[in-house]
Amino acid sequence: MTPRTALRDPKQDRSRATRRRLLEAAVACLAERGWAGSTVAVVAERAGVSRGAAQHHFPTREDLFTAAVEHVAEERSAELRALPAPHGEGRVHTVVEALITLYTGPLFRAALQLWVAASYEEQLGSRVTALEAKIGRETHRMAVELLGADESVPGVREAVQGLLDMGRGLGLANLLTDDGHRRERVVAQWSRVLETILTPRD
Amino acid sequence: MTPRTALRDPKQDRSRATRRRLLEAAVACLAERGWAGSTVAVVAERAGVSRGAAQHHFPTREDLFTAAVEHVAEERSAELRALPAPHGEGRVHTVVEALITLYTGPLFRAALQLWVAASYEEQLGSRVTALEAKIGRETHRMAVELLGADESVPGVREAVQGLLDMGRGLGLANLLTDDGHRRERVVAQWSRVLETILTPRD
């Protein structure tokens, strides 16, 4: 059989690299300029790609930006899953800190702009709702796994959900000003609380 | 002395009523159409006020929409403060539910549109940052009071802050779909948790 590498098509590689550049430029653009300032043309220029090539990959503006948020969300999930499982004292705090960083970077800012635009832009509505649900489920699954949470214990599922809701709220609080100092103390306190919920005493 | 009522100027009353109609229309407009779709002209029409009269009250678009969010936030605070202080079992749950409703109605939707627009619209930036800080402080103070929280106890301040961050996150989760059922369970669980934090056993 022909070795697998011999099957790689340099043209396909270039196409994949272009697609990736467009997705990353789209997320940065959404995070910085909001939906109103995010067009295919602006992203193509930022990515150094012709407008025609951009439209070949993403026929509509909605295609480009929903694909971009999905792509970056998947990358962030993969990074988190690749973290070595923390052990010992402070384990919950370490995991909670890692989860909360999902909501304080450019991905959350971009996703937020998309969610908010979807609340009034009809052509975004259903696609973004589906995407939000998918990212939400995936984040929850990852949180349960990283925390080693036993969801069969009453209240544990809701505690993990509430933690992620808090993460979203902390992300929002970080949108206009650097809220890092306050956030650190909130995260420390709720990590302690979560720890007692996850490891009930007999 | 002339009785107070005789001093009331019907022209001033009309002016105040016009102002109020504009503010309420502005919040509804922001919540439904986002910043991009919210102009003074659209709000004036919705309020049944001439564009000239609208501009007399609010010279700029930024004046109108920041004043609108501030006005409605003050009204909501006044309503919450007027609630009879709940007593007995389930008290914390009742208060937490009331606080969380701050984040699931049209006021939060309108404020969210304004915060998000302020992250990329320079002329909104500093005004909205100041407004957000003011509303945040006021909400925190109200939460502490309604919960009867003793912030001199270590961790209590951060617990209340985290609760309000969670409220913001729950509001965001409710933006595109009705998240009421899930929210109810999260609120019930975190109310139980908060209760144990606020009433430490000796």
UniProtKB/TrEMBL annotation, chains A, B:
Ranges of the DNA-binding region feature: 39-58
Domain HTH tetR-type, chain residue ranges per copy: 16-76
Organism name: Streptomyces melanosporofaciens
Signal peptide residues on this chain, from the entry's feature table: none
A Pfam family hit: TetR_N
InterPro entries xrefs: Homeodomain-like_sf, HTH-type_TetR-like_transc_reg, HTH_TetR
Keywords linked to the UniProt accession: DNA-binding
Membrane-spanning intervals of the chain: none
Entry coiled-coil feature ranges: none
Superkingdom of origin: Bacteria
Name this polypeptide is given: DNA-binding transcriptional regulator, AcrR family
